[in-house]
Design a protein that fits this description.
Shape: elongated
Structural class: mainly beta
Strand content: 5-15%
Mean pLDDT: 60
Largest sheet: 3 strands, antiparallel
Helix content: under 10%
Number of helices: 0
Strand order of the largest sheet: 1-2-3
Radius of gyration: 35 Å
Order of helices and strands: EEE
Distance between the termini: 117 Å
């Protein structure tokens, strides 16, 4: 009969739960892309450049069903 705390081939019996133990390496097996280092930058790290165009702010149409009126330049006859 298995008792609480007994260990069989890496499986520990703890009450009603079984815990599997996996050996974890003490060194990173692969570089993490979300932890860039200055010596080894990842290609996923964006670097802002002065040539990057900023998006042009667009006017917000608060009345989508009403189109704005196009005003034509007023040309007045200047009679001297």
């Amino acid at each position: 009969m298995l008792e609480t705390g007994d260990r069989i081939a890496g499986v520990r019996i703890a009450g009603d739960y079984f815990y599997l133990f996996f050996p974890l390496p003490h060194f990173p097996t692969s570089p993490l892309p979300h932890h860039p280092t200055p010596h080894h930058p990842t290609p996923y790290t964006p670097h802002p450049t002065p040539h990057t165009p900023h998006p042009v702010p667009q006017s917000i149409n608060y009345f989508p069903g009403i189109k704005p009126r196009r005003f034509s330049p007023v040309v007045e006859d200047c009679k001297n």
